[in-house]
Structure formats: structure tokens, C-alpha cells
Amino acid sequence: xxxxxxxxxxxxxxxxxxxxxxxxxxxxxxxxxxxxxxxxxxxxxxxxxxxxxxxxxxxxxxxxxxxxxxxxxxxxxxxxxxxxxxxxxxxxxxxxxxxxxxxxxxxxxxxxxxxxxxxxxxxxxxxxxxxxxxxxxxxxxxxxxxxxxxxxxxxxxxxxxxxxxxxxxxxxxxxxxxxxxxxxxxxxxxxxxxxxxxxxxxxxxxxxxxxxxxxxxxxxxxxxxxxxxxxxxxxxxxxxxxxxxxxxxxxxxxx
Length: 255
Description:
Layout: E1 2-10, H1 22-25, E2 31-35, H2 43-55, E3 59-63, H3 81-101, E4 108-109, H4 113-121, H5 123-136, E5 141-145, H6 149-156, E6 161-166, H7 190-203, E7 205-207, E8 213-215, E9 220-224, H8 230-243, E10 246-248, H9 251-254
Parallel strand pairs: 1-2, 1-9, 1-10, 2-3, 3-4, 4-5, 5-6, 6-9
Antiparallel strand pairs: 7-8
């Protein structure tokens, strides 16, 4: 039986504004990527999400972003290397504090939104992010998109990493996510997400919109918690993976 991880981005509520259903999602996934206050989230929601994740035996990850609350972290920003490093370290350290207060530690770090997309294509930027993660805790896993510069930077720096694919996003022929502004960027519906993921697992790599296969290891599958269909998609993926003989594992059990 093959172990695989199912992760979700969450903790993205802010003040009185609510995003997603984290309590339900945390009963399905095995790893949580928790917003750290820069693109979404705040101290109270960080604390609650960590507490519920720990209660459900879900491994904890920081989900750092550009300082862009208004744009949900999806707008490109250009920071110096020192600014970028400090931005990542600040957010990881903040979530680590909540993890320690709950008697545990973070298992991983996954960049969010534009920060993630830009680092996937820019090895210098990816290297700064991976170095920042390593400087906080050498045991942290970098959760990196398949076929990305973040994977390469982790390999170059000999940092623990896991490779993920997205259940609800389509891919271009170079392995990059289809930009949200382009047609068919999103995969809509639980069954479509299941079909998309199983197609890639069966192919042993990313399958682009045009059918190009880029072979890569796959350790984890991401469901976006801000997707209105996130609960249905995550549950359908869990059931489909189990039916195919996979065992769902925490990220820190796989790397």
C-alpha cells in the first residue's frame, strides 16, 4: 500500500470575516497549511485552527504570503532578498509559537499565492525562501509544487521537502499552474477533481491541459480551503484514494 498526503490551505478567516469550513476540512485532510496573518488569518484564528488541527491529529504547516490582505496574497510583489527572508521567517515563527503552545511543532512550510507562484519559476527567489525556512528549523519540510524551482532549491540546499499537486487547479505544459485569469484555470466539482488527481497519479506526474505529462514524484495533494466545494472535493478525494489502495498519512510521516 502506498502512503500519500492530503493537505489543505486554511485558517484564512480574518476578524469577523469567515472563509471556508476549517472544522469540517480538518476531519478529512492529514496536513493543514495555516495562514499567518499576511494574506489572511489573524492571531485568534491561527490559535483556533492550530487547536482544532492538533485535536484531529493533523500535522501543522505555516502558509506564509506577501503582506497583501487586500489582495489575498495573490498580487505580485518584489521584495529584496533580506525583506523576503524576514517576511517568511516572521510568519513561520508566529505559527510555530501557537504550535508549541499546543504541545507540538510545525511539520512544514508552504508558500501561498503569488509568493508561491513566483518562487516556482524563480530559482533565486526559491532559494531565499528555502534558506529562510531552514534558518528557523532545519527539520521543517518545504511543501513544494511539482516541477518547480522550490523543489530544485530544496534539493540544492539538502532541505527536507515534499512534492505536491493541486486537485482544483489545471497545469500548463511547463508544469506551472494555469494563471487564474486564464480559461480553465480552475477544476470545478468534486468528481472532476478526483479524475484530475487520479489521472496524474496514474501517469506518474503532472498532466497539463493539453495532455503533456511531466514525470515527477508526488507526495501530497492540495485542496484549497477557500473553494466553496472544498469539503465535498476533499471527502471525495479521500474516498477515491483509499479505494485505490492508498493510505492517507500526515506529511511528517512521509518525509
